[in-house]
Amino acid sequence: MEAFTALTVLLLIAGGLAYSLRRLGFSTIVGYIVAGAIIGPVLKLVDPHSELILFLSEMGLILITFEIGMTIKLEFLKKMTQPFIIILIEMIIVLSLTYILTTPIGFTAGESLIIAVMALNTSTVISFKLLEEKGGIKGEVDKFILGVASLQDVVALASLTIIPSLALAEAFNFIKLFDLLFSIAVGSTVLIGLGLFIVSRAFSIVETSGEEAILSFLLSMALSFTWLATVFGLSPVFGAFLAGLAVSASPRMDEVRPKLKWIREFFSIIFFTSIGLTMPPVISYQVLTLGIVLTLFIVFVKFLGFSIGSWILGLPLEAAYTIGFYMTSVSEFAVVIANEALKNGIISDDIYLSSIFVVALSSIASTILVKQSKNITPKLASLIPEDTKKLAEKAFSLIRQSLTAPGLENIRIAFVSLVKNLAFLL
Known about the structure:
single chain; mainly alpha; 19 helices; disordered C terminus
């Protein structure tokens, strides 16, 4: 099939399935992936290795991450001390439980790590929609939920940077891993420095030249930082994220972003459809079973991680449980992470295919849990004896005091100053 005919078929089927599944309560991303599976491995209408499809799908990934950077502003991150702490707590719990529970049943260390990283991504869109259905985003807890979900996009992007290098490390050599993380830190610092000292100033000049010039500048910055990231050994998508972060401070960004959205939507449809295109033609019961089991496991560890983290930060136990329910949906980026791990030989085809089921099934589970949270949370809270609850809250109070100590604040200020100076020197 000719390239443009194949593209037409792809867009028609992907759009139709996405609309149909959205009416049934699924994410449109699931529709795109299913469409790719139908027109690729099932009907063989589109070649997944077509140069046009590969180029357009790569552009989709770059523009998605660029917009994430535009959304997560530097000023916003400065106010995110508590969300950073809760994500750190969640990471410790999820990584530990995943390794302890999966390696004894035959998963490799690499597979356990990828499953944990998949679990560390929450669907911001689903959390937002659930909050809207509840009556809108009103209280601080609602903003806290969206803040944490947004920050997890950064975790997803960072994991994409590390995955290819982990595949090359021999038995996860910690010295090589340290060298890798150091090079990532230096490269990120240089790119952030370029963004803060050059790109943001250039954008202030370009923004007076009209909408066409602004859109051209934004796209060129996304692509330029993508190339620069590869020079420093970083993931191209992380470079696009840093480019978005660099231009996010512009006062006109809220006005420009809706115009950029439609360009991004076109490319992102092809990107997510291309994930389905690469699926094997037959999905076994083994894959389906693994997908269901992984979904239940990931929903459990995510709920546990966020509930405990929120409780440690001082929220009432029932409110902590409610936050845990909102955070149980897995982001579509989990499929991107699994796809990258599959290409690098870290996970099997079965785990990659199961990640698609995890995205869809966790969205359904999250919706049910949130709607039933008023009935479930009191019963869960009653399972913990009062004496145990009081003892835990005293221990958590001491943890909070240590986390908010003036000494730690001075360390944080000194670290930020060091990073700024290093960026300037580099």
